[in-house]
TrEMBL record:
This is Sodium:proton antiporter. Pfam families: Na_H_antiport_1. Keywords: Cell membrane, Membrane, Transmembrane, Transmembrane helix. It comes from Corallococcus praedator. It is found in: Cell inner membrane. The lineage of its organism: Bacteria, Pseudomonadati, Myxococcota, Myxococcia, Myxococcales.
Length: 187
């Protein structure tokens, strides 16, 4: 309560002052820091560790549980027909299928693009769809049960296709398909 009262007084003093864009960043930072003081410690803890868990621990867990033994594998193993076909399916097939069918639905008037979304962003999302490897690992396990050599090749293709989709999708969405900033009309 104490923090909220101090923050209310601070905001009242800001409203009373003339608008100064040079000070706006510092003012917003002060407000943000005050709000952090009332955030529960568990929320701060979760926010602190989220990046490490989401981008480090979970992918390592998935890789460890995929059961792929990469020791002794070389580029020649990656260039075999089975891994190449799986990589093409995850990386090329998913992005082409998702992008083309969504684009066709938009052009046919069945569904609009989300407000402010571009075709480049749609393409980035289609590429990212190739990341999903858990079902692919499950299907590979069913398809090649009793054939450990083919299952290992399939897993290698699945992980490579997923990794390729993740990296290319990230680059597309981060650097190519930047969101457009909606312009607000002047008051």
């Amino acid at each position: 309560r104490e923090v909220l009262e101090e923050l209310a007084d601070y905001i009242k003093s800001l409203v009373a002052q003339p608008d100064d864009e040079g000070q706006r960043g510092a003012q917003l930072l002060h407000i943000e820091e005050a709000l952090e003081d009332i955030e529960p410690p568990l929320n701060r803890f979760v926010h602190l560790w989220h990046g490490f868990v989401a981008y480090g621990i979970v992918p390592l867990f998935a890789l460890a549980n995929s059961g792929v033994d990469v020791s002794g594998m070389g580029l020649s193993d990656l260039l075999k027909p089975l891994p190449l076909g799986i990589i093409a399916g995850l990386f090329v097939g998913k992005q082409v299928g998702i992008f083309l069918f969504t684009w066709a639905a938009v052009k046919a008037g069945v569904s609009p693009l989300p407000a402010g979304a571009s075709l480049a962003q749609l393409h980035g999302v289609a590429v990212v769809a190739g990341i999903g490897f858990t079902v692919a690992l499950f299907v590979g396990g069913l398809a090649f049960s009793g054939q450990p050599a083919l299952l290992a090749e399939a897993k290698l293709g699945i992980l490579t296709g997923s990794l390729l989709s993740a990296v290319v999708g990230y680059v597309l969405l981060r650097y190519v398909a930047r969101p457009t900033v909606a312009s607000t009309p002047p008051p």
